[in-house]
Design brief:
The complex is a heterotetramer, with two copies of chain A (389 residues) and two copies of chain B (299 residues). Chain A is of the alpha+beta class. Helices cover 38% and strands 24% of the residues of chain A. Chain A has 14 helices and 16 strands. Chain B has two domains: 10-124, 3-Layer(aba) Sandwich (Rossmann fold); 142-298, Succinyl-CoA synthetase domains (Rossmann fold). In chain B, 33% of the residues lie in helices and 20% in strands. Chain B has helices at 22-32, 59-66, 77-89, 104-115, 164-176, 197-206, 223-234, 268-277, 289-298, and strands spanning 10-14, 35-40, 55-56, 70-73, 94-97, 122-124, 130-133, 137-140, 156-161, 180-186, 212-218, 239-244, 281-282. Chain B has a seven-stranded mixed sheet with strand order 8-7-10-9-11-12-13, sandwiched between helices. The radius of gyration of chain B is 18 Å and the shape is globular. Classes of the chains: A alpha+beta (389), B alpha/beta (299). Chains in contact: A-B, A-C, A-D, B-C, C-D.
Chain lengths: 389, 299, 389, 299
């Protein structure tokens, strides 16, 4: 789960990490008021959206007066932000952050993420902050400091001090940076984060250590024990179909193509997209119905697929394990009765209860005129691509 | 022979009464011929399940009463990591954790806990279909009938996969092509897990009754790259492979946490390249995994 | 550091462990009111003192009415409690607890203490609760369940369930007991306890699990990070001289004898008591002035020793390491000038700056007429015993 | 020869600038001839101490610059366990922790952390006087002059003790009686600590230049009983001993946490009995420890 920058800042501040004064507002007029309340001469107005590329898109603006703050916020609220991460249609801005700008002496990067290979969370730090850490990692790997946490004991104090020293900090600034790291690590563990990133952490010209921008994501699997975090979720940032799928326990991601896919298992779902593309088609979505799918869930899956009006065909690929083929066949028929399949449907079934499923489909043949069966995955992909071009 | 499980493996199911699939799949394993000997369900000790298997409150009691040496875990996510630790602490040799959705930090701690038992215990999963040695022992949720037990004249393939249903695809293709399977291991898609490719590859390489290997990976992480390097250096048997997610858009989370591409690490291309450089025959289409194995077999 | 039973109950309750309804009061009249407020027919009045042996001394009483509660409390407030643990002079009672009595089906023991050999905290449990666990451990060691905590990960859930099962619990009671254990272990770690003991934990006749009596002590070395715990300390339970010594960072324990000892180092201080006793004397105290003792602290040490009017002689035994002999010699002279040594003083000095110390004492010989020097520890013990008998 | 430290041991002091004694005793060790090579004090890196030794912010920096293989820790109690872990993580071989008053649970966790380094690191203390090999290397707070370096004709005794000043007593008595000391190890009085009697006994038994052993214990715990059993089985050199706290009243806490008697465990009587049963000559009076060693020596 993702949260907005302003929410991440609040979590950092609550954990005792210093952030510049800031206010989050939902109107241009409030942005002007926020500027006055912050009461420093130079401030920054930042659109609160999940997508990156805000700066280039003009959705991060330095302002010197309440009027400028209002103008900047007004622009952000009235225009959709378009960046490489949003797609051409862009996204609407609902909130902006008005924050005190600071006089920066140097920018650093501090992050905590899982290191899969070491099976533990690791600190990533760099004295080259303020830019994409992936770029630094790629171009100058020696500028990246890694400090794995102890899997059971967390980040030891000395390890935090070691990172601060390697970043070049000395004196009381070193211990301030070590404290930022220790508090970030505690935050990561406390809330089951999947990333805690402060970029940049800055040293100001008057010697202060401040977190300027922050990104915090959470482990979806652990949200059950963090109702306070769950309450911070912003549904406006999600595709309505994706939200609807999530409610039905379906793992659905909308994509740009026109061939809808319904598959069980994430790996097989990705492989199905791959094989569609290999045969010249373009998948309209990723959809893993999961092992424990119930009849109603499977019908809802078809409803969601068909409500994407770009869809020109449906490929069903089920290799039954936990999921049962017969249940999917029944859902297909139910969906046909309810919403009707105007587009071609290619079905490939294998695994648990496959014979029962084939019998069910054979019996309902007349109800599903656009239905074709496939013998294997290549056959299925070929047929759906052929039927939709 | 085979790896990890065989006809004498004695298996309990932790979470045998739960709605997480424990009851359903205990029956499935029994039907396949697995020596299921009991299960646990805290608070229900002393009763029996629908198959007449004894239920215990703790693994300590179950192990004492049944002599189980393996466990299949269906315990719900909030308690599953603890169940894994329990099995290890009680001397269970093989832990197969099916449960999906265990918090990552729970697994970080559980893996540390397990590390203290060294070679005494092996974890497969979590979030995996399980392990099967066809004709002998099935621990997990895979449909049994798609597998082919080894018999004279049938080449025997060992299968390792991060993805459940994609494993079935590979199994089914090899069966269709007239191969058999020595053992199939679904290592699971979670970022922190038990056995990874390398450990299973080592087992298959050492197993006299495995003739060739199929390895199925997906985008995210660098386990496939590491495995490819290992294969280049240590594996002499023919290996075919497939990587799912070639066409997945970057930054989107596809199903399990395994499938996030971040930066230059863990893309399908980097994996496929590394695997081909290690001499692995990588199928372009998931429909051609069996075919790729035949090519690898011919060398 | 120790706290009272009522304070331990409050900590347990805050941690989510069920305890019977109870009120702590400081007057007999309030005890009657507490009985009425608790509003159950059978209750128990318990003196809140650190010393054990309350039951036998008559300071734990079952009562059936507010009047009985008042009478029982009145007795406790008006009489000093004398038990094997208090010494003949007994101790005054300042607070009593009026608690609902429960219908007990079975009594259990649950405790958490450090296992030195394993270097971790360990659960100690027994189905034979309500009695001294040391007695059970001695007579029926097989009735004791031990479950060491993981040093870094604490008590795993399964280990708590395993203890509950070994105690014979099944069904939902097993998980309740496991929860009590997990919460106790969390409490131990949260507050740096040195013991958390629930004795008895009871199963009531109506199937409830309740903590009836609890003892919680804390690691003195960790109190610096638990101001809330430090605030629970009851100075009334300590000897005034011991409190005064603690303020001066002196490790002082008052004993029954008449030969005061001033020593540096806990081991040497105990050994000094041993050698005094070996030569027929009786030490009046244990006093370790510590390595970092300052001049004022050393003088205060002499003041404290001499303000015990049982003292008939003083033995000073310093083997200077961190502690410097010259500083002790100066303190001796300063104390002599301030309070005067009417009793014999035997001084044995060795180690850091010993020659300077001897010179100082030689020079001040006239000021300390009762002073004798000793060549070694045996000599010192002989001389002080001879001088005081 | 000797154990643990010798003339080439290179020592840093963690907490070299602090009021905890780091500055004072760094000078003491230097004066004795110890190869003190630097120290750490977070926030003061780049400066020098009164003796001209370089000060660093972290042990990583100190070790790189000085090649230290041992450390003496005077870091204040709230940070001392972390300092111990830091030294271990940076590859310091011998950690001597002088600091008194470290929270017990901090040490429980630190000891676990150290355990992961296996034989690579040895911890002495905390709450101990330190280690000295007379004439070669002193790491700690003991007065140097009471010790006697081995020389031809002088018997060499290894001394282990839980109590600081009582160790000096034993050292002084052996010096007075014309013995020398191979190495003296104050293992400290805390309940959770590094080396215990048994490990040091093993080192002394194996050390060709240790002729006899003195072991000084105190009430509380069962380490002396365990050590006695170990001596009976494994130690062939003469051993003398003393147990402090024979007359301490039960239930009173005398100085360090080591000295609590609870139940039947850890009384002076049980320790003395166990030691005598193991053939150790136990002195009744702390003034007679040297005398007891002479008796043990004569067998």
């Amino acid at each position: 789960m993702k949260i907005h920058e302003y929410q991440a800042r609040e979590l950092l501040a609550k954990a005792g990490i210093a952030v510049p004064a800031a206010r989050v507002v939902e109107s241009a007029a409030d942005a002007a008021a926020a500027f006055n309340a912050n009461a420093v001469p130079l401030q920054v107005v930042k659109a609160q959206v999940f997508a990156g590329g805000r700066g280039k898109a003009g959705f991060v603006k330095l302002v010197k007066s309440a009027a400028e703050a209002q103008t900047a916020a007004d622009f952000m609220f009235k225009n959709r932000m378009v960046s490489v991460q949003t797609g051409p249609e862009g996204i609407a801005v609902k909130k902006v952050l008005v924050a005190a700008a600071v006089d920066i002496a140097h920018e650093y990067y501090l992050g905590l993420v899982l290191d899969r290979a070491k099976a533990t969370v690791s600190v990533i730090a760099s004295a080259e902050g303020g830019v994409e850490i992936e770029t630094v990692a790629h171009q100058r790997p020696q500028a990246i400091i890694r400090e794995p946490l102890h899997p059971a004991l967390g980040l030891p104090g000395f390890a935090a001090r070691r990172v601060a020293a390697r970043l070049g900090f000395t004196g009381s600034q070193a211990s301030q940076v070590a404290q930022v790291l220790l508090k970030s690590a505690a935050l990561y563990a406390q809330y089951d984060c999947s990333i805690v990133e402060i970029n940049p952490l800055v040293l100001t010209k008057d010697g202060k250590i401040l977190a300027i921008d922050a990104k915090i994501n959470f482990d979806d699997s652990a949200l059950f024990r963090h109702p306070d975090i769950l309450a911070m979720a912003d549904p406006a940032e999600h595709d309505p179909l994706e939200l609807r799928a999530a409610k039905a326990n379906l793992n659905y991601i909308k994509l740009e193509g026109d061939i809808a896919c319904l598959v069980n298992g994430a790996g097989l779902a990705m492989a199905t997209m791959d094989v569609v593309q290999l045969h010249g088609g373009k998948p309209a979505n990723f959809l893993d119905v999961g092992g424990g799918v119930k009849p109603e869930g499977a019908v809802e899956a078809f409803r969601i697929l068909l409500s994407d009006n770009k869809v020109r065909g449906v490929l069903v690929n089920i290799f039954g394990g936990i999921a049962r083929c017969d249940l999917i066949a029944q859902a297909l028929i139910a969906a046909g009765r309810e919403v009707g399949f105007k587009v071609p449907v290619v079905v490939r079934l294998e695994g648990t209860n496959v014979q029962a499923a084939r019998d069910i489909l054979a019996e309902a043949r007349a109800e599903l005129p656009t239905l074709q069966s496939a013998t294997d995955l290549n056959d299925a992909a070929k047929k759906i691509v052929a039927a939709t071009t | 022979m085979s790896i990890l499980v065989h006809k004498n493996t004695r298996v309990i199911c932790q979470g045998i009464t739960g709605g997480g699939g424990g009851a359903f799949h205990t029956k499935g394993c029994l039907d396949y011929g697995t020596k299921m000997v009991g299960g646990t369900s805290p608070g229900k000790g002393g009763t029996k399940d629908a198959n007449g298997l004894p239920i215990f409150d703790t693994v300590e009691q179950a192990r004492k009463a049944t002599g189980a040496d393996a466990t299949m875990i269906f315990v719900p996510p909030p308690f599953a990591a603890d169940a894994i630790c329990e099995a290890a602490a009680e001397g269970i040799r093989l832990i197969v954790a099916i449960t999906e959705g265990i918090p990552v930090l729970d697994m970080v701690r559980a893996k540390k806990f397990l590390a203290e038992f060294g070679d005494q215990v092996t974890l497969v999963g979590p979030n995996c279909p399980g392990v099967i040695t066809p004709g002998e022992c099935k621990i997990g949720i895979m449909p049994g009938y798609i597998h082919t037990p080894p018999e004279p004249g049938k080449r025997r393939v060992g299968i390792i996969s991060r993805s459940g249903t994609l494993t079935y695809e590979a199994v089914w293709q090899t069966t269709q092509l007239g191969w058999s399977q020595s053992t199939c291991v679904g290592i699971g898609g979670d970022p922190v897990k038990g056995l990874d490719f390398v450990e299973v590859l080592a087992l298959f390489q050492a197993d006299a009754d495995t003739d060739a290997i199929i390895m199925i990976g997906e985008i995210g992480g660098t386990a496939e790259e590491t495995a490819a390097a290992y294969i280049k250096k240590n594996v002499t048997k023919p290996v075919a492979g497939f990587i799912a997610g070639r066409t997945a858009p970057p930054g989107k989370r596809m199903g399990h946490a395994g499938a996030i591409i971040s930066g230059g690490e863990g893309t399908a291309e980097s994996k496929i390249q590394a695997m081909r450089a290690a001499g692995i025959t990588v199928a372009d289409s998931p429909a051609d995994i069996g075919h790729a194995l035949n090519i690898a077999w011919r060398g």
